[in-house]
Amino acid sequence: MGGLAAWLTAARFGARTVLVVALETPSAYLDPNDLATAALYGDGAAALVLARDDASTSGLLGGILGNDAAPGEPFTVPGTLPPRVLAVEAGRFRFQPPDAAYRAALDERWRALGADLRDAFPEAAAATRRFLPYAVSAPQVAAVAAAFGAGADATWTTLREHGCLGCAGPLVALDALRREKGAAAGDTLAFAAVAGGVAWGGFFWRL
After folding, report:
1. Residue 203: pLDDT band with limits 50, 70, 90
2. What is the pLDDT of residue 207?
3. Which of 85, 130, 131, 134 has the most CB atoms less than 10 A away?
4. What is the DSSP letter of 130?
5. Domain residues of the chain, as ranges?
6. 91 Cα distance to chain centroid
7. b/e sequence 125-141, b meaning 16+ C-beta within 10 Å
């Protein structure tokens, strides 16, 4: 979520030149004996430079950011800072899996975010050529793509190559998309993320 939030915030403030950086290092907190998460998450980092050009038609077409409390136990590291030896030995600095209530809240927020973006920016939504979501797993991506009305051929991630890269994922996916010539100048892209406890955001961007 952090990478897209930084990108959208920078674009909204209209700064002349901005460096946006997103990175995740979940390997430091994964339990190697828990294959359900250890095989799912990867470390990742990405950066992009935004340059304002008042004569260009490229850029932000519209976006939404928000946050709210969610019920249940989230996917998080429950240890308190600073770390204590006993807490580390007790596994408090390993990721805890989310419970059913939290998963349901995330699913509902994804559905709401898709509807909110389509309602707020119908022209941009109709013109969208590629959808680049925060991607955790193939079933999750399929579900969020459906919430956004995006088909499998329009949805772009790097899960197959890198696994879940957290907040860096959409930016890494954008780099791969451009390198593979999957998008061209003038194309409209949609980005979206729901994560944390719960934070969400999404926007449309014309290349």
Report:
1. very high
2. 94
3. 134
4. E
5. 2-75+95-206
6. 27
7. bebbbbbbbbbbeeebb
Question: Distance between CA atoms of 14 and 87, rounded to whole angstroms?
Answer: 44
Structure tokens at 176: 């791969």
**Residue 44 · residue 28 · CB < 8 Å:** no
| pLDDT tens digit sequence for 158-191 | 999 999 999 999 999 999 999 999 999 999 999 9
Q: Is 32 helix (H, G, I), strand (E, B) or coil?
A: coil
CB 200 within 8 A of CB 63: no
Q: What are phi and psi of 69, to 5 degrees?
A: -75, 145
Three-state DSSP at 142 gives helix
CA-closest candidate to residue 24, choices 95, 72, 80? 95
Expressed in angstroms, the distance from the first to the final Cα of the chain is: 21
pLDDT, residue 13, reads 84
Calpha distance 137→35 (Å, rounded): 14
- Provide the CATH topology of domain 2-75+95-206: Peroxisomal Thiolase; Chain A, domain 1 (3.40.47)
How many beta carbons lie within 10 A of that of residue 98, not counting itself? Answer: 17
Q: Would you state the structure tokens that stand for residue 25, as one six-digit string? A: 């290092």
Question: 7 — phi, psi (to 5°)?
Answer: -60, -50
Q: Which of the four pLDDT bands, split at 50, 70 and 90, describes residue 33?
A: confident
Q: What's the CA gap between 150 and 189, in Å, rounded?
A: 11
